[in-house]
Specification:
CATH superfamily of the largest domain: Probable inorganic polyphosphate/atp-NAD kinase, domain 2
CATH architecture of the largest domain: Sandwich
CATH topology of the largest domain: Tumour Suppressor Smad4
Number of helices: 5
Radius of gyration: 20 Å
Strand content: 25-35%
Helix content: 10-25%
Number of strands: 19
Shape: globular
CATH class of the largest domain: Mainly Beta
Structural class: alpha+beta
Number of domains: 2
Order of helices and strands: EHEEHEEHEEEEEEEHEEEEEEEH
Largest sheet: 7 strands, mixed
Amino acid sequence: MKLRKAGIILKHGSAKPRKVGEDLINWLKTRGIDTVLDKVDKDLDILIILGGDGTLLHVADKASRYEIPVMGINLGGLGFLTAVSAKERFEALELLLAGKMSVEKRMLLKTRLIGDSDDSKYPMDYQYALNDVVISKGNIDQLVKLRTWSDHEFITTYTADGLIFSTPTGSTAYNLSAGGPVVQPNLPCILVTPICPFMLESRPVLLSPEVTLITQLAGKADNVKVIVDGRFAWKMEENAKLEVKTARKPLYLVSMPKKGYFEILRNKLNWGGTGNKIPKLPQ
């Protein structure tokens, strides 16, 4: 990959990302590559994230909009998205310059809250999610009822603590904690997962990425929030409807070659315990 200009995004509130960032700036400078800090501009050839998945989520929208490949160097916790470890950073950059890094397309969701035709207090602009769009109840002593449609077909009315609309990338985030399935990132679909549903028959569903999902409160509820990739977006009221669909542009995520998805799951989620040998495929 030909690199002329790289953007470096730092996790705030920690000294380590800034120190690693300074080392990367010097390393890139010796190879004739300009750098900018904490900016996402359309003229960037690569965006390097120094932090955890949360740091990457904050810039995923702009990176996808400008079609800038993103490489995440994990200086945080689990790091499903920032899958390059700190000790691998220079090796990863060498492989990137040699054109040997893998680049995956990760779908995003776009969502907006729509009010009544005469109600202008709801913003009509879309917000974008690499992981998930979550409807969350505000009070511990209430359940919310959410009527939900896939295109023009009614799915059901969920009675639950909330509802998660997730991408395959986000299947290992809140969706997993709520009992939803793990989905390979290259499988195009939208997951709909109720949070602690009142009826156990309310199960997660996988839907085509082509559908438009609409959900609306079936009755009054207090302090119901819409959270987009962990950030508060809107307060949802009875007459509003939430629209969720697949975004037109994906995120281009750079990852280490030969580091498989299930290897990452085994390491991050401790599948099968630690220290177990990987069996060879039978011939």
